[in-house]
Amino acid sequence: MELTGYRYLLLGHLMAMLRVLRIATVVLNLKPFMLLFTESYIWHRTVRHTLLFLISVHWTNCIIYILPALGYYWTGKMPRQYTLFLNSTSGDLSTYSPGMRYNKALFITLSALVGVDPSMLKVSTVEEFVCYSLIVFYGAMFMVYTIIFLLKIYMTYYNSATRYHGLLSQMEAYMQHKQLPAQLKTRLREFYRYRYQEQYYKEDDTLECLSDQLRHEIILHTCYKLVNRLPLLEGLPASVVGAVMGCLKPEVYLPNDLVMRAGDNGDCMYFIANGTVAVYSLKGVEICHLEDGDHFGEVALLMADSKRVATVVSVEITQVYRLDAVNFRQIVKTNQLLYNRLQELAAQRMHETVVLDDEFRRQREKRVELDASGTTLLS
User: Fold this and answer.
1) Which of 21, 54, 66, 272 has its CA 20 to 30 A from that of 283?
2) Which UniProt keywords apply (predicted)?
3) What is the DSSP string of 206-238?
C-alpha cells in the first residue's frame, strides 16, 4: 500500500473516534434504563460512575498505543522507539497478541490511576512522555472526582443521621449553656432519641410543598395501624375516618410526664399510638391503664364546662395523636354514630370514676372512724 493510502486509512480511523460523542447519549439513556430496576439515587450514580470508569480505562488502554499507531499510518513503517514497556527489541507490535498488548496497557492504566511510579513506563521520547503525562494527569483528576463522588454518596446516604447528630450537638451545647440538671438532660436525650429515631429531617418543609391530597394520603398511611386498633372508628364512613386522621397531631411523652390534669379546661382529646398511660380520678384514685389504640380526653369536650374529670400520666415513653376541640366538634356534628359512641363511652367512664371516688371516700371515712375508735380506747 502506498504512503498516501496509509494516511487516508489513518483519517478513517480518526473519524471513527467521533463516536466518543455517543458517551453523552449513553449516560443520558442510562437513567431511564435504571428506573426499570430501582429509583435509588445512589444506585443510579454508582452505575453511572462505574460505566464512566470502564470507558475511561478502555480508552486510556487504546491511547497508550496511539503514538506507534500514528507513526505506522503516517510513515508506513512501525516505529521502534515506542512501547519499550513491552520489552520489545524489534519494535513490531504485530509480534504480540492483542490480548497481551491490552493486558499490559491495562496494567499501566490502573497503575497511573493509583499514582504508581511512572518509571515503569520506560519512556524514551518527548512525545511519549507527554502522552503518558496526560494519562497520569487524567487518572489523578478521575481519582479526585471519584473521591468527591464517594463523599457525596456518603453524605446522601447518611444525611438524615448526620443532621440528627448535629441536632444533638446543638442540644448538648444548649443544655451546657443553661446548666440544666443531669436528670433533665437525660430526659431530653431520651425524648430526642425516641422522637427522631436517630434520623432527622425537616418534615414540615417536605410536606409544605405537597398538595393537600398528597399530604392527606401520607397522614392516612402514617396512621394506618392506629386506625385498625381504634374500636371507636369501626364501621364509620371512610370520609369521617379520613377527616379524623387528617386533623391529628403527634406528640411524645416521657415516663411520668403529665398529659392532662383533672379540673383543667379540656381543649383536645388523645389517641394512643404506642405506650401506656395511667388514669387517675379527681381524688387521685387510679382508675385504669390505657394502652395502644385507646383514647382519652373526650369527656371534657362533651361537657358544658369543658373541665377535665381525670388526670392522665404517662407510664412509659408514649406517642399520642392529639385531636383539637375545634376539629373534634366539626367532625362530631357531621356523624351521629360517632357522637353516640362518644356519649356512651363518656357516660361509662364518668360512672366508673364516680364509683371509684365514692369507694375511696367510704374507705377513707371508715379508716377515720377506726382511727377515732382506737384513740378513744387508748384514752
Assistant:
1) 272
2) Membrane, Transmembrane, Transmembrane helix
3) HHHTS-HHHHHHHHHHHTHHHHHT-GGGTT--H
